[in-house]
Amino acid sequence: MKKYDLNDTYIASFDNEKAITTKNIQVFYGKDQAFFNGSLAFPRYKITALIGASGSGKSTFLRCLNRMNDDVATVKGDIMYRGLNINSKKINVYELRKHIGMVFQRPNPFAKSINNNITFSLKAHGMKNKKQLRQRVEKSLKDAALWDEVHGELNQSALALSGGQKQRLCIARAIAMQPDILLLDEPASALDPVSTAEVESTLKELKKKYTIIIVTHNMQQASRISDYTAFFYMGHVLEYNTTKNLFTNPHVKATEDYISGNFG
Amino acid sequence: MDDIKRKLLKPSKETHQESIGRTICYICTTLIVLMVILILYFIIARGLATFTVNHVNLWDFLSKSNWAPTQVDAHGKPEIGALPMIVTSFSVTILAALVATPFAIAAAIFMVVLAPKRGKKILQTVVELLVGIPSVVYGFIGLMVVVPIIRHIWGGTGFGILSGTLVLFVMILPTITSLTVDSLEAVPRYLLDASLSLGATSWQTIYKVMLRSATPGILTAIIFGMARAFGEALAVQMVIGNAAIMPKNLLTPSATLTSQLTTEIGNTISGTLPNNALWSLGLILLLMSLVFNIAVKLIGKKGMINNESKNR
Amino acid sequence: MNPRIANKIAHGVIYTLVAIVIIILIFLISYILVNGLPYVTPHFLSAPSQVMNAGGGIRDQLFNSIYLLILTLIISFPIALGAGIYLSEYGSGKISGLIRTTIEVLSSLPSIIVGLFVYLLFVIRFHIGFSILSGAVALTFFNLPILTRNIEDSFQSVPNLQREAGISLGLSHWKTITGVIFPEAIPGIITGIILSSGRVFGEAAALIYTSGQSAPVVNYADWNPFDAASFLNPMRPAETLAVHIWKLNTEGLVPDAKQISSGSSAILILVILIFNISAHFLGNYLYRHITSSSK
């Protein structure tokens, strides 16, 4: 395996409005350091892709952004959101996760009906009005491009849906909370090509309303849907640029090798 | 915007929910731990009273074979020799384990290797049913069937260690079998395939590869079975004869620690020496169940170390 | 010895031993049912027991067994649930290891020891006396380790993805547990409760000095649990079916002790069989119901 210079980095900066910024993120599992250096600024209402080989730390980094690593790892560094450093004990993580939602690698709908998958968390957060709930279900399913397929069977078990439908239900469930930011951790990796295409087209629609950060190991996917791309390598962010520039004109050797398939 | 910022810095409904939930779980768990501490404390305190309050010599208690707590011997000391019960308890336990182990291992091999589909299902049901039969029913059948048969063959009363052994053998059989099955199933498939592909017969493979590498698990299974036999009270009490005297052979009436406790504790007055002496028998039972526990832990640890060194 | 011959002999021995085990079980079950079922008549089930005369029934013992089981579950289930959730969801590291060991110690204690402890503390020291309540406490000690373990396993078998899904939606871990994990763990928990009920139902050693060895006549029309004569009064002594069998065979005075024991054993076995079978089917049914595509 080739060795790359971890200090050879190229992090571009942009002047558009930022949804969330990170500074010097480091992650430790016990004494082992899993992530070393992540300083990135994510533009609002854009899709940013995090790419890299498996084990490069992209998922670990993503999970820092809504504090999903709290129980398993120690995270150091600053994560600025709405002028607050959210990587702090003072922050109410439950409130935070309402604004920064997440969709996981494997579709994980609850063992409940399609309708209750979406309303369960809404009710838990205090939404009681039936009409309001119904509207929210319809809207989030429409946004996730699932409404046309399931609107007649909202009371059926979500576990009976196909893989792609399940994943779009998980997206609908996340956006029903009306978050600012949507984090997606390889949302299409467990799906077949048809379902992947469904999910991708859903995401392109969603960026009108949400800031999206997506982890993927599929470079074609990153180039198809994202506006910005960050390249991760062995727990470091080596390059960050607009997707177009990163893929056509990589500044760092590791990035170039990775996107041209000469990697590893 | 400011509203969200303020909410992010304040505890919410979820924060309270979480602390209430955690507290409930902590209380329940603490309750169980307290219960265990309470049992250990009470049995130990009560069991030690014979020696601390009544000043019975510990060695006499363990080594003498006269059990008559209401009487005193020539030196004016109470006759509290627990050896007969200790010997009987260990005898039935060890004998039952000796009888049960071959059956359990045979059944486990049958389930895992020889007939892993239908045979396993059948024996699984057999094991579950054997576990399900209550110990008084075992005792009752022992009393109705085993004791008369032994009386018929060897004479005497039929009550004694042999009857106790036969009843306990069936009772601990399912325990040893199901744990042995677990440990045989844990033997990696490739070891067996390797042995068979080298031309070994299935018995050679079972004996030299499977049973060898499953030995710690099988030992654990046997100890669990022995722990069950040692602590079993009523089934044994119904067939052992309940005579607190040194057993001469397997056919004379005798008493185990549990049977002596069961029959006598209601006939003694709390705080008196005869009562305290019984609690001391209880203390032996408690300590033995801890010993069985520790033995299982030690074997588990050793097995793990062995496996680790193999893996390296 | 020739390995082929050794192989044959070994197989022969194994098959023989297995056959003996199966024969023992068939003998046990058929002995109990053949000897016991003829005595199981409506009169046997509905008549009170006799002290000196033949012809007694097991009405009160049967009811006591059921009542004691229900009371035991009412006390032990919530505690086991809390502890099981702790071990599966919140516990980690050394402390939960220590707690697991403690629970193992509890489960390995002989039931007679547990019974005598409750006798010492509740019956004598707290002056509660031989009573259903004391018996239920003893059975709770006996039942807690099994139930806790089962609940922990049932929670553990729910994939971690479900926890992450709940937590990522801003729910508290507790709300995720109660609203998402618990419903999915229910089939396993129900199966465990029924199986442990079978054990509780047949237990006698922990009860002879706690719920006692007498079945006073109670009034089944009196629904006030605070009345001394009410069948629901938890402070009255209550001999159970299993204790009844033991008592009849050790110091029974009735001439038909053997017949009553046989009948009672048959009832015990049948109830436990029904528990086992229903645990199996109900668990499967609930599992399919919760995960299936139908409404």
From TrEMBL, chain A:
Q: Which GO terms describe its biological process?
A: phosphate ion transmembrane transport
- Tell me where in this chain the ABC transporter domain is found: 20-259
GO molecular function annotations of the record: ATP binding; ATP hydrolysis activity; phosphate transmembrane transporter activity
Listed PROSITE patterns: ABC_TRANSPORTER_1 (PS00211), ABC_TRANSPORTER_2 (PS50893)
The domain of life is Bacteria
One GO cellular component term:
membrane
SMART domains hit by this protein: AAA
UniProt keywords (A-Z) are: ATP-binding, Cell membrane, Membrane, Nucleotide-binding, Phosphate transport, Translocase, Transport
NCBIfam families membership: 3a0107s01c2
The name of this protein is Phosphate import ATP-binding protein PstB 1
Q: What is the lineage of its organism?
A: Bacteria, Bacillati, Bacillota, Bacilli, Lactobacillales
UniProtKB/TrEMBL annotation, chain B:
Top-level lineage group = Bacteria
How does the record say this protein sits in the membrane?
A: Multi-pass membrane protein
Give the matching Gene3D superfamilies. MetI-like
Any single Pfam family the record assigns to this protein: BPD_transp_1
A GO term for molecular function: phosphate transmembrane transporter activity
Keywords in alphabetical order: Cell membrane, Membrane, Phosphate transport, Transmembrane, Transmembrane helix, Transport
Would you tell me the Gene Ontology cellular component terms? plasma membrane
Domain ABC transmembrane type-1 residue range list: 86-296
Q: Give me any GO biological process, just one.
A: phosphate ion transport
Q: What is its main location?
A: membrane
Descriptive protein name: Phosphate transport system permease protein
Q: Which organism is it from?
A: Philodulcilactobacillus myokoensis
TrEMBL record, chain C:
Compartment list = Cell membrane
Q: What is this protein called?
A: Phosphate transport system permease protein PstA
The source organism is Philodulcilactobacillus myokoensis
> What transmembrane ranges does the database entry give?
12-34, 66-87, 99-122, 128-147, 266-287
Identify the stretch annotated as signal peptide in this record. none
Give every ABC transmembrane type-1 domain span: 62-279
Listed A to Z, the keywords are: Cell membrane, Membrane, Transmembrane, Transmembrane helix, Transport
- Pfam families xref list: BPD_transp_1
Describe the family membership recorded for this protein in Swiss-Prot or TrEMBL: Belongs to the binding-protein-dependent transport system permease family. CysTW subfamily.
Is the keyword Coiled coil in the record? no
Annotated membrane topology is: Multi-pass membrane protein
Q: Which NCBIfam families match?
A: 3a0107s02c
Q: Would you name any one GO CC term?
A: plasma membrane
